[in-house]
Specification:
- This protein has 203 residues and is mostly beta strands.
- The protein has 2 domains: 28 residues; 156 residues, Porin (Beta Barrel), CATH 2.40.160.
- The protein contains 1 helix and 8 strands, in the order H-E-E-E-E-E-E-E-E.
- The protein has an 8-stranded antiparallel β-barrel.
- The longest helix is centred in the first third of the chain and has 21 residues.
């Protein structure tokens, strides 16, 4: 009887281990979520901001011979508060609607600003520059008509702002800004300089 030879062929299939790849993928996903939460990712999570705080305005006044500005001198300081709404249109562009109120013992200014902002976000810091228009209603307590009503003036100006935000959390930030306004149509004010110290909440 002839001996039989038996051949045993072993086929080995290399099956990739998905279980080994999962921890790395989970780790990468966790890092992306943490970056988004910290506001350092490419996609901004919060598009709307409410801004509020204290503001000071220094005015350089025109040379005047009229009764409207006779008691105001050639410069003036006003103090007030600042409310604004900011809408992020793009990671580097936003629009802001600003409503400050300024006053002293002689007058009240109620301006309204619309600004387009250029933003540059780097980790928790966000420097910005802005330009836009400003309208203002000024009430002069020391100047009154024959009926005893305080004189008022409406003016239009060009507004320029520079400053920065620092994000304490992804939602909360503190902000400082410096602004300049040129007011061509006013009989009283020609140049306005402002400094503002603000807080911001984004949602």
């Amino acid at each position: 009887m002839k001996p039989r030879l038996t051949w045993i062929v072993v086929v080995s299939l290399a099956v990739p281990s998905f279980a080994e790849a999962e921890p790395a993928q989970v780790e990468e996903s966790t890092e992306e979520v943490e970056e988004a939460e910290e506001g350092i990712g490419e996609v901004e999570e919060y598009k709307n901001g409410f801004i509020f705080g204290f503001s000071h305005m220094f005015h350089l006044l025109r040379d005047r011979d009229t009764a409207l500005g006779s008691a105001l001198g050639d410069r003036e300081n006003l103090y007030g508060f600042f409310l604004a709404f900011e809408r992020v249109l793009h990671p580097n562009v936003s629009i802001t609607f600003v409503k400050p109120f300024y006053f002293n013992h002689e007058r009240l200014d109620s301006p309204f600003e619309i600004l387009i902002n250029g933003l540059y976000r780097k980790n928790k810091w966000e420097p910005f520059v802005a330009a836009g228009v400003l309208t203002s209603v000024r009430v002069f307590y020391n100047e009154r008509d024959e009926n005893g009503v305080a004189e008022k003036e409406f003016s239009f100006g060009l507004r320029f702002v520079a400053g920065f935000k620092y994000f304490v959390t992804p939602r909360w930030a503190v902000s400082f800004e410096f602004g300049y306004t040129f007011v061509p149509g006013s009989d009283v004010v020609e140049h306005e300089l402002s400094d503002s110290y603000l807080g911001a909440y984004f949602f």
